[in-house]
Every structure is written in C-alpha cells, then in structure tokens.
Specification:
Distance between the termini of chain B: 35 Å
Number of domains of chain A: 2
Structural class of chain A: mainly alpha
CATH architecture of the largest domain in chain A: Orthogonal Bundle
Shape of chain A: globular
Helix content of chain B: over 70%
Shape of chain B: globular
Mean pLDDT of chain B: 90
Number of helices of chain A: 13
Low-confidence stretches of chain A: none
Order of helices and strands of chain A: HHHHHHHHHHHHH
CATH architecture of the largest domain in chain B: Orthogonal Bundle
Order of helices and strands of chain B: HHHEEHHHHHHHHHHH
CATH class of the largest domain in chain A: Mainly Alpha
Radius of gyration of chain A: 24 Å
Structural class of chain B: mainly alpha
Oligomer: heterodimer
CATH superfamily of the largest domain in chain A: MetI-like
Number of helices of chain B: 14
Low-confidence stretches of chain B: none
CATH topology of the largest domain in chain A: MetI-like fold
Radius of gyration of chain B: 23 Å
Strand content of chain B: under 5%
Chain lengths: ~280, ~280
Amino acid sequence: MSKAKNRMADTVLFVVLVLLALVFLAPILIVLMNSFKSKLFISNQPFTFPSGETFTGTENYSTGIMKIKFFQAFGYSLFITVFSVLGITLVTSMLAWYITRVKGKFTSMVYYLLVFSMIVPFQMVMFTMSKLANMLHMDNPVGIIVMYIGFGCGMSSFMFCGFIKSIPIALEEAAMIDGAGPVRTFFQVVFPMLKPTAVTVSILNTMWVWNDYLLPYLTIGNDYKTIPVAIQYLRGGYGSVDMGAMMAMLVLAMVPIIIFYFSAQRFIIKGVVTGAVKG
Amino acid sequence: MQKALKKYFVLFALPGLICFCLAFLIPMAFGIILSFCKFSNLTNARFVGLSNYAKMFVDGNFGHAFGFTVLFTLVSTLTINVMAFTLAMLLTRGLKGTNVFRTIFFMPNLIGGIVLGWIWQVILNGILMKSGVTLVSNAKYGFWGLVFLVNWQNVGYMMVIYIAGIQNIPSDLIEAAQIDGAGKWIMLTNVIIPSIMSSITICTFLTLTNGFKLFDQNLALTAGDPGKTSEMLALNIFNTFYGRNGFEGVGQAKAVVFTMIVAAIALTQLRITRGKEMES
C-alpha cells in the first residue's frame, strides 16, 4: 500500500520535473522558432510557429550575419577567449606557486592584493582601465588578453594558491635535490598535480571571457566586436531593432555555448561548483 | 628551495604581476584619486575635493537606482534560493532521469547576460502584449522581468551547489532521525537545513553579489527604460561616465561607493564562512 503510494508520488514528481524542464528549455526553443519568422511577426506573435505567411527560411540568418559581421565577431571572441584562458591558467599557476613557496612580506602582500581584487567590481576600474589600455596602444585583441589576465588574476591565483598549500612541499624539494631547476620542477612535478584546479580555472574563465560585454566594449568595441558586443550593437542608437536578425544571431551565439556545454558537461558543473565553494 | 625559486622571480611572478598592475592596481589607484577630481581623460584631472561625492545624489537617479537594486537583489536572492533548494530536494531522491534534469536546469547559466536579456525581452513582451503593455511601459515590468531572467539563469547553478550539500549529509544522521520518528517537516527543518548551512551561505552571497552587480541583463532587457526608472546601480554608473560630458568624476565617485558596498557584502560573507569553519 505504502509502496504503491510512493510509486504514485514518484510518477507525479517525474511529470512535474518534465514540465519544469520544458519551461527551462522553452525560451531557447522560442528564440529558435522565431529566428525563422519574418521580423514583422516576431514582436506581435512570438508564440506561434512559422507558417506559410510568416516563414522566411534563413533570411534572418543571412541579414544578421552581414549586419554584425557574425563570423568576424566569432573569430575575435574565439581568439580572445582561447588565449586569455591559456594565459590566465599558465601565468596565474606560476605566480601562485611563487607566492606560496617564497615566503616573505612582499609575497604575502601580493596575495592579499590578489584576494582584494576579487571583490572589486569592474565598474570601479572600467574607465581608468580602458583609458590606460588606449594610451598604451593595448586596445586590440592582443592587448585585451593582457587585461583579461590581469583582471582574472585574483580569483585564479587564489584557487591555485589554495591547492598548492595542500600539496606536500617534499615532492618539489626531492625534484630539486635530484638536480631539476625551478622550471623543470614546476612543469614536470607541480603543474601535473595542479590539473584539477587548472581545469576548474579554465572553465570558469572561459565562461567569463566568452560572455563578457563591458571590457571588450570599452576597450576594443569600435574596431573589434566580440559576439556580445556585436549583438548589443544590433540595437543601434535609437529606434527599431531588426528582431528577425536579432533572433537569428541569438541562436548563433548560443550554438557554440551549447556545444561546449554538452561536450564537457561533467567538468563544467563540477568546475563551477568548486569555483563557487572555494571562491 | 626558496632561494632557488627566488632567482626565477622574473619568469614566475613578473608576468602575472605586470598584467595585474596594468589591469587592476594602476586603474584602481587612479580610480580612487580621480573620484576627487574633474576630468575627461587620465591627463587633464583637476582636484575638486569631495564635490563629486556631493553631486552623486543631485539628479535623484542614483538614489532611485540604489533602491531598485536593493529591492531587486533581495527579491531575486529569495526566489532563486527557494526555487534552487526545492529542485535540489526533488533531484536527490534517486529518481530516474535525475542527471538529464540537472543538465537542463543548469544550462541557462552558461548563456551570457546580453543574450539572456534579448531572449527574455522577446518572450516577456510577447506575454505583456496581451494586456497592451511592454517591458518598458513601467519600471515594475522591467523589475519583474529581471527577476524572471535571473531566476532562469541562476536557479540551476544554485541547485547544483545545494545538491552537493545535500549529498554530503551523512546517511546515518538521516537514518537516526527516521528511527527517532522525525516527520518530513522536522527532517527538513531540524536535520537537512542545519546540515547544509554552508551551501546556504555560499548561495545566498553569490546571488546577493551577482544581483547587486547586475549589468548586462539590465542593459539588454530594458536599458533602464522608461526614463531610467529600471536602471540598476551598475548601469547608472556606466551612464554617468559615458552618457554625460563632465560627469566622469561623479561616475568615478559612484563607482567608489558601489565598490565599498560590494566589498562590505563580501566581507560579511567571509566572516560568516570563517566563523562556520571554526565551529566544525
């Protein structure tokens, strides 16, 4: 009796969860559906399927791709994300090892400054940082990588430091006694052990850099538009937005994210949780 | 080993420190100094004392944005955490398909704020159209629109943190409570919630700070319309910097105040988590 009741409850629960999952997926599906509709019909009937009259095929996609130079934006986003993430992971793991293993006033001051930088919102430095980038001629896709490394330094170093503190120094000392210099010790002994943290750091930074809007908008937004900047640019100055092109570009913007998610889902969820708990 | 490593300062520490100085330390230091100056770029600053701070509240928008942000942050923190905790409870009962549900609920979290804002603009405008209004007819629509948006974005994220917390509760604790005849409600309030206090702290503060710092979603969903009434603090600071000539200093002063508030929230969290760790 109670077993049957339990099974009933489980079935009800399952149905509720399925409905909720549909609610969660609906926004993405609605955008996908509308991306095939003529722009005139998106604002006033967003919840109907494209039909003979409203269906436009891939026209929104071709207009949108032309309007915001989507593939160029994709290229900039990809370039900046890949090299920023590689840079952050390498540079901060080395920095973290140095400031954890070399004890002194200077290194502990650096550590506290890095931790402090984690809580400072971007608005605090956005004006001065973008002007500085401009003055130093770093307002290009290569220069912005330096800015990402610098602004991402805090959280990533903090996570690496936490992990390095937990690994026994004896292993490193043994490698050094065997004649390995700091460079070999780091790359052959320390870095392999840091791998789980490196994965977490890379995933968190990929999500941040890929989706970031303000930093690229302020520093390189005029000449090099990343995907979020290009999408917001569709809004233009005043007046109407081409909603058809907008829907199509939203779909194209989500495709890489969804592919990334499904190819590394386990790592992503785990990485984000560890990041939240440690940060 | 310290000695050997110290010689490699240039290779190990310097690259990171240079980037950190360029992107953070120097802009931060200049930012604080410039909040006491009148300027339009880094080279024409003129000291004006505290007048930027005094001007912050003159147009009334900053005060309004502050109230809007605080209210939004409180409402969204509450709704996200209640939803996320409920889902986490449902997904830790060993039902089939749990992983698929978890994957789906988490997915919106990967989508960037600008894209999220536009997705929800279309959907919410479509719904509101039936009553003859749009998201920018009145700030209350923008407010609740943002609440919906951040719920969709963050519920899955907080849910996985709660799931991790719930799964870490020792099973003998649950069994002991069951043997003692604890009902479902007692189990929830006296066993489960106290055991996952650290997850609750993390999620509360993540949603608090994220809510307070929200920018991209605000920009893409309503851009502060109508007439800056749905403008949050971060967008207000941005508009002060780039919307009005001669107000860069005021923008910087607002940014300093904003930073202090965010830092206060973060430090409170740190103190609470530190305290908890001591206890256990």
